Structures are given as C-alpha cells and as structure tokens.
Amino acid sequence: MERRNTIQKQLVLQAVGELADHPTAEEVYELIVRDHPTISKATVYRNLASLSEDGLLRHIKMPGGADRFDHQTFGHNHIECTVCGRVEDVRLSDAAALDAQAARETGFTAVGHDIVFRGVCPGCANKRH
Amino acid sequence: MERRNTIQKQLVLQAVGELADHPTAEEVYELIVRDHPTISKATVYRNLASLSEDGLLRHIKMPGGADRFDHQTFGHNHIECTVCGRVEDVRLSDAAALDAQAARETGFTAVGHDIVFRGVCPGCANKRH
DNA sequence: TTTTTAATGATATATAATATCGTTAAAGGA
DNA sequence: TCCTTTAACGATATTATATATCATTAAAAA
C-alpha cells in the first residue's frame, strides 16, 4: 500500500500551515480552491485524514462543530471562544497525567483523550464592556 | 416563557435514567417508541436539550460521534472504549483545576471544558488475548 | 370551561463527513 | 523514455446527526 505524494496532498498540507489557526476542512478547501478551482472537497477531506494518520497534521475533534486541523502536531490542547468561535492553543503542564489517572480508575488500557476548553477570549470579553 | 411538564418530557427523562449507560438520542427514542409509537424523534431531541439546559440531564458532546446523555449530572468525566463503543464514568480528582490553568494560560474567562477519554475496556482487552 | 401559547408530530432542511465509481496520474520497472 | 499498476482523483450520492418550519394539540392558568 504505497502512499503517493500528489500535488493535492502538498496543497492541503501547505494550506493548513498557512492558515495556522486551526482551520476546518471547509476553510482549507476555500483557500486552495482560489488558485486551484478543480480540486474536490472530497480530496481535501481525504488528504486531511491521511496526513493526520501519518502524523503530519493533528486532527482536532471539536465537540459540537466541524473538526479542525493543526499544523503543530505535539503536546498541546485547545480552547474555543464561545462568542467568536476562534480556537487558540493551551499548554497544560500535566495533561498526560490525566490519562494515567483515568486508566487507573477504570482499568482501561491504551488511554488517550480529547479535550477542548471553552470560554470567552479577551477580545470578546472587552467588547461586552 | 413558562416550561410545561409534558408526558413526552417525563418519558425522555425516565428513559435516560433506565438506560443509565449514557444513551444517544437515537437510543432514547428507540426505547420510548416501543411503548409510545407516536412519539416523534424531534420531540426526543427537543426534550433532551431542554432537560439538559435545566440541569436534569447532562449533555455529553462526544467527539466524532452522536452526543450522549447522562442521568448523573455532576462532577465526573467519561471514557469510551474504542473497540466496543461503550461509555463508562471516570472520576478525576482535579478536573476543575484544569480550567483554572487554561484560563491563566490564555486570558480566557468563564472557562469550562469537554473531555472524553478513549481506550480499550478490560472486556475487549481480554477478548484479544 | 375557555383562553393562551409552549410543545408536539411530521417533515424539510442543514451540516459534516464518508462511500461509490469511472477516470487520471504517480511511481517503479522494462 | 514508455509501459504498467493502482493509489488517488473529481464528481456526486449517501449517511449520520441535528435543527428548523409549521399546522395542530394539549398544558397551565384565568
């Protein structure tokens, strides 16, 4: 099962890097289609999935919304503004310890987690006085 | 905006309590429709939402799957088996401290979080030898 | 009992993502 | 360089989950 390095795959990887701010599949498609009007949305979804599998992107599963993709693949979490919807990085000191605790508590093995914080970003907090 | 106590709402609340194990909206509907074949799926969704708003149920947003509902509303988290799909409770000692840390890190206010652990439950781990 | 209107059932629509399928082009060998 | 193989493509259909619309029904209060 070889893996081919298509120009579409390169475009998807580059687009996530350019957008940087945790774009959705839709946003990645919108950027690419400007210069490459023949690209298919299915191709964007497929490449986001395969690049994430291969560890070149990180797939962020957003509860209650479209999934997002991160060009930075390691060791951080995310916080979403409930007002404007923007997603920022959060660096937690002991996020990994949570998995160990959950494993101990439940007897589950191979434990990981998806965590997304929600709150109001400083910009939106100010706009409300 | 009064809130009416309909029999459908009672049925939904009771069904989540009976199922106990974090049912999806679909599963709640399936249980109720056996004895009340005229209930609408939209009504189940609406009541799950309104009961969650009112604090009588907890709405668990599952990343990458149908949302689930919990009759137990306070202070615990959840872990999903990646093999069989069942969802169990996890009790973490310091889950609230995470929010404070995220708030300090980012400057966001009113911070909460959605966290779902994933792993392999003891039953499924055994089946694989 | 009558009035008010929140909630209902039926259905249409929205959103996100995956599946299907005939065609195209990437990669390796001749 | 030119074949051959088949992963990946573009177009589109389908699935899954959830919400919106709207005429009708039934809770709650007068």
List keywords for this structure.
homodimer; 129 residues; alpha+beta; Arc Repressor Mutant, subunit A; Dna Ligase, domain 1; 2 domains; three-stranded mixed β-sheet; two-stranded antiparallel sheet; 5 helices; 43% helix; 21% strand; flat; DNA-binding
Structural account:
Two copies of one chain form a homodimer. The first copy, chain A, is α+β, with helices and mostly antiparallel strands and 129 residues long. Chain A folds into two domains: 1-73, Arc Repressor Mutant, subunit A; 74-129, 2-Layer Sandwich (Dna Ligase, domain 1), CATH 3.30.1490. Chain A contains five helices and five strands, in the order H-H-H-E-E-E-E-H-E-H. In chain A, the strands form two sheets. A three-stranded mixed β-sheet of chain A has the order 4-3-5. Chain A has a two-stranded antiparallel sheet with strand order 1-2. In chain A, strand 1 (58-60) and strand 2 (68-70) form a beta hairpin. In chain A, helix 1 crosses helix 2 and helix 2 packs across helix 3. The model of chain A has no long low-confidence stretch (mean pLDDT 94). Strand 5 (109-120) of chain A pairs antiparallel with strand 5 (109-120) of chain B, so a sheet runs across the interface. The first copy, chain A, binds a DNA duplex (30 and 30 nucleotides) through helix 3.
Main CATH class of the largest domain in chain A: Mainly Alpha
CATH architecture assignment of the largest domain in chain A:
Orthogonal Bundle
The shape of chain A is: flat
Q: Element order, helices and strands of chain A?
A: HHHEEEEHEH
Pick out the low-confidence regions of chain A.
none
Strand-pairing-aware structural class of chain A: alpha+beta
- How many beta-strand elements of chain A? 5
Number of helices of chain A: 5
Could you estimate the helical fraction of the residues of chain A in percent? 40-55%
Q: What's the name of the CATH homologous superfamily of the largest domain in chain A?
A: Winged helix-like DNA-binding domain superfamily/Winged helix DNA-binding domain
- CA distance, first residue to last residue of chain A: 57 Å
CATH topology of the largest domain in chain A: Arc Repressor Mutant, subunit A
Mean pLDDT of chain A comes to: 94
- Side by side, the strands of the main sheet of chain A go 4-3-5
